[in-house]
From TrEMBL:
Belongs to the PrpD family. Pfam families: MmgE_PrpD_C, MmgE_PrpD_N. This is 2-methylcitrate dehydratase PrpD. GO terms for molecular function: lyase activity. InterPro entries: MmgE/PrpD_sf, MmgE/PrpD_sf_1, MmgE/PrpD_sf_2, MmgE_PrpD, MmgE_PrpD_C, MmgE_PrpD_N. Residues 14-253 form the MmgE/PrpD N-terminal domain. Transmembrane segments: none annotated. Residues 272-432 form the MmgE/PrpD C-terminal domain. PANTHER family: 2-METHYLCITRATE DEHYDRATASE, 2-METHYLCITRATE DEHYDRATASE-RELATED.
């Protein structure tokens, strides 16, 4: 039998924690994390706003209804709050460069931040209120995704899409000033919109990006419905036939699953635009290359021992840009040959590089019990590189650059923002955008931050 439902259960504990979020009361680390993850996701929305999938999403909506009144970052056409959320979420996930939460295998930013921005703009929220909503959204998705991991992913679901709808509902609910009962209803309504199959690993790259748009939009819609008085099952997350029961066959989830620390402080920010599970191996490879001064041409063999979710990418081809971002051999070959991984490394010309193909033939991948035991507390990898002259070097890492234990510097975060924003504007304007968004906590109405880049 499952644990009895009570007023001290998972949903109640989560609601209580969300209720007490006040930016001024949060410790410095949590405040800084909120600002960093906001900036990172905003940059990704700008960078992904001109991607083909984003254009398809907007064109589809434009064919169905007239423009709305809200601006959409990086786009000219205005939208209503639901469509603005949808388009910005799709854009934010389009470059495979967004933040993540390893213990739940989810990407919190792209479902939370677009919802907070769209609803915040709708209600003329302050920057401080938007940051509080972002903390609430991250707390919600990390709590749910961590509890559902690894079975959620193992059953073929996309954690960002399935758990992300609750994050958007939390962020939107915060900005709509939902009381506890209304927010509980919002979660109950959102639960019935949770979904998303990980079939995209076999192709159909657009689906992965559209998943997060659906989750973010439906979470906002749930909060709007709850604000108007729509009722839903009070324990739709942990109750019988609720989210955990339906998706991961768990009816034993209690309030103890709500962590004491803030989920946003446990999330990573990507230094390279690729699958988060592969970042540790890339980091180890680049460190060895840098420390010992060899080039890709010097490498005879490369051996990787890592956890299963990462090793599963060893056979992923690089026939499309999206598949290349998930391809273990392509990414390591690119890292060895060029000393970094950039967005332009996924162009058709880059993927056709015969040097990459030749390099990838020298790699082997393994997933040992020892490595699997270290996941998901870490994202471990052991990389051994043997050179053609017989020398060999090895590096064991438990996590990658950009993780909470190895955070990116302020300068690196700022440069990432600029590199993405220049995809829609010039460098001077990109730096001005960074400065404006970095000061969001002092803004009385976030609408002023939505000025179209020139």
């Amino acid at each position: 039998m499952g644990a009895p439902l009570s007023d001290d259960g998972f949903t109640t504990r989560l609601l209580d924690k969300l209720h007490h979020i006040r930016l001024a009361d949060l410790d410095q680390r949590t405040q800084q994390a909120a600002r960093h993850h906001l900036l990172d996701t905003v940059a990704l929305i700008y960078g992904g706003s001109r991607e083909e999938t984003t254009g398809i999403a907007e064109a589809t909506l434009a064919a169905a209804r007239p423009p709305g009144g809200l601006p959409v970052l990086g786009r000219e056409r205005r939208a209503d709050v639901l469509d603005a959320t949808f388009i910005m979420a799709v854009a934010g996930h389009s470059l495979e460069f967004d933040d993540g939460f390893s213990p739940g295998a989810a990407h919190p930013g792209v479902v939370t931040v677009p919802a907070a921005l769209a609803v915040g703009n709708l209600v003329h929220a302050s920057g401080e209120a938007v940051l509080e909503a972002i903390v609430a959204g991250y707390e919600t998705i990390t709590s749910i995704a961590r509890t559902a991991h690894p079975m959620l992913r193992g059953r073929g679901f996309h954690p960002t899409a399935t758990a992300g709808v609750f994050a958007a509902a939390a962020a939107a609910g915060r900005l709509l000033n939902l009381d506890a009962d209304e927010q509980r209803n919002a979660f109950g309504l959102a639960a019935s919109s949770a979904g998303g199959l990980a079939a995209f690993v076999q192709g159909g790259d657009d689906l992965k990006r559209l998943h997060v748009g659906h989750a973010a939009r439906e979470g906002v819609f749930a909060a709007l419905l709850a604000k108007q008085g729509a009722a839903a099952p009070p324990y739709a997350i942990e109750g019988p036939k609720g989210f955990f029961a339906a998706f991961v066959d768990r009816t034993d989830v209690t309030g103890t699953a709500i962590d004491q620390t803030w989920g946003i402080t446990q999330c990573y920010i990507k230094p390279w635009p690729c699958c988060g599970n592969l970042l540790s191996s890339i980091d180890a490879t680049l460190r060895l290359r840098r420390e010992h001064g060899f080039s890709g041409e010097d490498v005879a063999t490369l051996e990787v021992d890592t956890y299963r979710a990462a090793a599963d990418r060893a056979a992923t081809p690089w026939t499309t840009a999206a598949s290349a971002q998930l391809s273990f051999p392509y990414l390591l070959a690119t890292a060895l040959l060029f000393g970094t991984i950039r967005l332009d490394h996924f162009s058709g010309a880059a993927r056709a590089n015969t040097d990459v193909e030749a390099m990838a033939q020298r790699f082997s991948f393994h997933s040992s019990d020892a490595m699997n035991a270290r996941y998901p507390a870490g994202r471990p990898s052991r990389v051994k590189i043997t050179l053609k002259d017989g020398r060999s070097f090895e590096r064991d890492v438990n996590d990658a650059l950009g993780s909470p234990s190895l955070p990116l510097s302020e300068d690196a975060l700022a440069q990432k923002f600029v590199n993405l924003a220049v995809m829609v504007t010039n460098e001077t304007s990109a730096r001005a955008l960074h400065a404006a968004w970095a000061g969001i906590a002092e803004v009385a109405d976030i609408g002023v931050l939505f000025a179209t880049p020139r």
